[in-house]
Specification:
With about 150 residues, the chain is mainly alpha-helical. Helix content is about 70%, strand content about 5%. It has eight helices and two strands. The protein has helices at about 1-20, 25-40, 55-70, 70-85, 95, 100-110, 115-125, 130-145; strands spanning about 40-45, 90. It has a two-stranded antiparallel ribbon with strand order 1-2. Helix 1 crosses helix 2, helix 2 (about 25-40) packs across helix 3 and helix 3 crosses helix 4 (about 70-85). The protein is globular, with a radius of gyration of 17 Å.
């Protein structure tokens, strides 16, 4: 079940990126991360059609517009309503759905100082222990990325 919930965020990113067009993958990630920040850990009901006036759809439009701008927000909302609307959705927390991305951001930002640690905790709404775990996760990702695979050409 938890794995399906995390895949939802990745499916949303992929669907929105296709509709936004070439080179807009980062915009889609930014928008879906904003949704996970705002609704993370909650069930929401997104209507399937725009003609159904919905407070959730209006909130979602606002969250997306703040993150990616009005044009991209409208396109993303259309995609989300068409593909994921009509059923209750569990929106995963950002730190779970985008673990690798957040881990890399933390690794780049953390300089070993206590004040930086506090800033990271506030920014990502996670504990000190989670920041350390994510930093170590980024270290492992970096090491795995540097090691050649068994069948890679050297």
């Amino acid at each position: 079940m938890a794995e399906e919930q995390l895949k939802l965020a990745q499916e949303m990113v992929a669907s929105c990126a296709v509709r936004l067009g070439a080179g807009e993958y980062e915009t889609a990630v930014k928008g879906i991360r904003a949704i996970c920040q705002y609704y993370g850990g909650q069930m929401i009901f997104l209507p399937k059609f725009k003609k159904e006036k919905s407070e959730t759809a209006e909130q979602l439009r606002g969250v997306l517009a703040d993150a990616v701008g009005d044009g991209a927000a409208e396109t993303m909302l259309d995609v989300l309503m068409a593909q994921f609307g009509g059923v209750p959705l569990y929106i995963p927390q950002e730190c779970r759905a985008f673990r690798d991305e957040i881990a890399k951001e933390i690794k780049e930002r953390y300089d070993g100082k206590q004040e930086t640690m506090r800033d990271l905790c506030r920014d990502y709404k996670i504990s000190f222990a989670q920041v350390y775990r994510l930093w170590h996760h980024a270290e492992r990702l970096a090491i795995e990325g540097k090691q050649p695979g068994l069948f890679d050409d050297l």
